[in-house]
Specification:
Thrombin, subunit H; 4-stranded antiparallel β-sheet; 25 strands; 32% strand; disordered N terminus; disordered C terminus
């Protein structure tokens, strides 16, 4: 069963220097035509030095900071958008594109003027609630698009819409969680981590081969996206996922000491790790960037 929460406006609070002002002044309300189930994405799409607000609802909306719509938007699929959009240069033209899943079983990619990229939308066998991840899987500086679908598969395409070698990969349940990408085993190449409604957490290499020790079983659905980071300070990365409990594994699938941790109830939200500062699940991976 799916749950939707009515929310037909994005509410923004006025911030100053990265902190909310003591007045809590309301910056504005940006109206859409339907439910808002996904988080907004902020990105300077037109290069004017100001962030646009990208959010899915009955359509995909892109608002300027003054509340006006970016020309060419909103754009529509054949159903609502419950996926959080990703932004990156997927076709290698030096300009950003918006990539987002739709409840019509497809994944869309639009240019900043609202025109579709050639070859898109891409079809899956189920609704795409998962938020896409853009990552350099081949190590050649180009971004692949990685996303889950309610057909139980994790998909990976290149910027032209062709499947990456080894994908899609099948799980035993809906893949509503968003994939995370990082070099888990220290070999200089990325791995992909994603949970499924079959209660398992999967890890594959860039060619779709399962990592040793995975999948790992939890006690409930996995809707939470994974956080990846050095949890125990040993210089290696661990995987943290919330389900019926908070789980943490090393890259070889062994549990981190002290885990899993009990939770008060089943968790849908994604964990974040913090040491010197907040750590978020990986949304981009490129060995060429430092």
């Amino acid at each position: 069963m799916r749950f939707r929460f009515p929310g037909v406006a994005i509410t923004l609070q006025r911030y100053s220097g990265g902190a909310m002002s003591d007045t809590g002044a309301l910056l504005g309300r940006l109206q859409t035509g339907g439910f808002i189930s996904a988080s907004p994405t902020l990105h300077d799409l037109d290069g004017d030095g100001h962030l646009e607000i990208i959010v899915g609802s009955d359509a995909l909306y892109v608002f300027r900071p003054d509340g006006s719509l970016l020309p060419g938007f909103p754009v529509h699929g054949d159903n609502a958008f419950a996926s959080t959009a990703a932004v990156g240069d997927v076709d290698g033209d030096g300009r950003p594109e918006i990539v987002v899943g739709c409840d019509d079983n497809r994944l869309y990619s639009w240019r900043t003027d609202g025109t579709l990229l050639p070859g898109f939308p891409l079809s899956t066998g189920g609704d795409v609630y998962s938020s896409p991840c853009l990552a350099d899987l081949r190590g050649d500086g180009t971004l692949a698009i990685i996303v889950g679908s309610d057909d139980g598969c994790l998909y990976a395409w290149d910027g032209t819409g062709r499947y990456m070698p080894g994908f899609p990969q099948q799980t035993g349940g809906f893949v509503s969680a968003s994939p995370a990408v990082a070099d888990l085993d220290g070999d200089g190449r990325p791995e992909i981590v994603c949970g499924s409604w079959d209660g398992k957490v999967y890890a594959w290499d860039a060619e779709g081969k399962s990592m040793t020790g995975f999948p790992q079983q939890t006690g409930h659905f996995v809707w939470s996206s994974a956080a990846i980071g050095d949890l125990d300070g040993d210089g290696r990365r661990e995987i943290v996922v919330a389900s019926d409990k908070l789980y943490a594994w090393h890259a070889d699938g062994t549990a981190v000491a002290g885990f899993p941790l009990p939770l008060g109830s089943y968790a849908v939200s994604s964990p974040a790790q913090s040491r010197a500062g907040p750590y978020r699940p990986a949304t981009r991976y490129s060995p060429h960037r430092r």
